[in-house]
Write a structure and sequence with these properties.
It contains 16 helices and 2 strands. It is an all-alpha fold. It has a domain at 92-322: MetI-like fold, CATH 1.10.3720.10. This is Sugar ABC transporter permease. Residues 343-365 have a biased composition (Low complexity).
Length: 371
């Protein structure tokens, strides 16, 4: 029998034995740490900036909301939830909340519908497609103060262009700055003018990423443009719809520029008929009350409201996008035949050998129609 002899290292030798783990050098250790740590270092600037500009102001606002914090006197004593109770006890807060929700519904819902319609039209083969696609973005580039000045003239109570057109049709002039609902419609028109084209381009980018094979298959099945839009386009851009709905909700609940610039006073009208919650918060902090504690409480209540409405919009948009109508059952045998032919070609089977190729299916369909 042959004996296995393990060679021992010679005395005085510094080389490790075969069973001894080899120690890594500094450069190898550094390269390992580089592979592990570098991805986190690359994404760390975003989280650092988010912590400085997002989390810290949010936490600091929560601290301010529980103190008697005056604009001139500075930080006062701890009052707990008294600021929240004081804000909830003011009728102006509830009026501003109703105004915000009204303007939000009048702006966000038509905005999303018109934006997705424009995107569907721009996604088709039209002449000068780039010109039209860039043209819908022009209102977004216009400064908010310019938009407010233009629409302020359009919706003027006495000499506005809208009332002049209505007068030509025999309709009495509308008090855009005195009637509550009319002022909400005018402000929502400004919001829709600015943001509809921006959201349309987002929808357009998502539609162009939809595979064109799906539209070809739907055309073979006999689906028209409307059925293709409902059964193919909407389910494929579901995540984009959810994104646009949530961002439109956040922007609609934080509206400030348009109601602030709708008149010269900038306080939401004589009776606060179009004062939004953010405009009310601005008035509490820098207006007559000059109370930072109550303004911080308003900010936190608005933050919670945005979270709740954003979650509800997420659930609703996800349900609508995922529960579309079923695909049409028109000429489905042609599509089945094409799929059978593709499977047969992939398996190396001659065309028509499986008995379910497109030729056999077409003949069967024709025989059934003759019968």
């Amino acid at each position: 029998m042959a004996a296995l002899i393990t060679a021992e290292p010679a005395r005085g030798s510094t080389s490790p034995g075969p069973g001894t783990p080899r120690r890594l050098g500094f450069s190898q250790t550094l390269s390992r740490w580089d592979v592990k740590v570098s991805p986190y270092l690359y994404i760390s600037p975003f989280f650092v900036l988010f912590a400085l500009t997002g989390l810290f102001p949010l936490g600091y606002t929560a601290v301010v909301s529980v103190y008697d914090w005056n604009l001139l006197g500075g930080q006062g004593e701890f009052v707990g939830l008294q600021n929240y109770a004081d804000v909830l006890g003011q009728p102006t807060f509830w009026k501003s909340l109703v105004n915000t929700l009204s303007i939000f519904l009048l702006s966000a819902v038509p905005q999303v519908i018109v934006a997705i319609t424009l995107a569907a039209l721009l996604d088709r083969n039209i002449r000068s497609a780039t010109f039209w696609r860039m043209g819908v973005l022009i209102p977004y580039v216009v400064a908010p103060i310019a938009v407010s000045l233009i629409f302020g003239r359009l919706f003027a109570d006495q000499y506005g262009l809208i009332n002049e057109l209505l007068g030509g049709l025999g309709i009495d002039p509308i008090g855009w700055h005195t009637d509550r609902l009319a002022s909400h419609v005018a402000i929502a028109a400004m919001v829709n003018y600015r943001w509809t084209g921006y959201n349309a381009l987002i929808f357009l980018a998502a539609m162009q990423a939809v595979p064109r094979d799906l539209y070809e298959a739907a055309t073979i099945d006999g689906a028209g443009p409307w059925r293709q839009f409902i059964s193919v386009t909407v389910p494929q851009i579901r995540s984009t719809i959810i994104f646009v709905v949530i961002t439109a909700s956040i922007g609609g609940l934080q509206i400030f520029d348009e109601p602030r610039l709708f008149d010269t006073q900038g306080l939401g009208g004589a009776d606060r008929q179009w004062m939004t919650t953010v405009l009310y918060m601005y008035d509490v902090a820098w207006g007559n009350q000059r109370d930072f504690g109550r303004a911080a409480a308003v900010a936190w209540m608005l933050f919670v409201l945005i979270l709740v409405i954003g979650f509800l919009n997420f659930m609703l948009s996800q349900r609508i996008a995922s529960s579309g109508p079923r695909a049409p059952r028109v000429r489905r045998s042609v599509t089945r035949g094409l799929l059978a032919e593709a499977r047969a070609a992939a398996a190396g089977t001659p065309r028509g050998a499986a008995g379910r190729g497109p030729d056999t299916t077409a003949t069967t369909t024709t025989d059934r129609r003759d019968a």
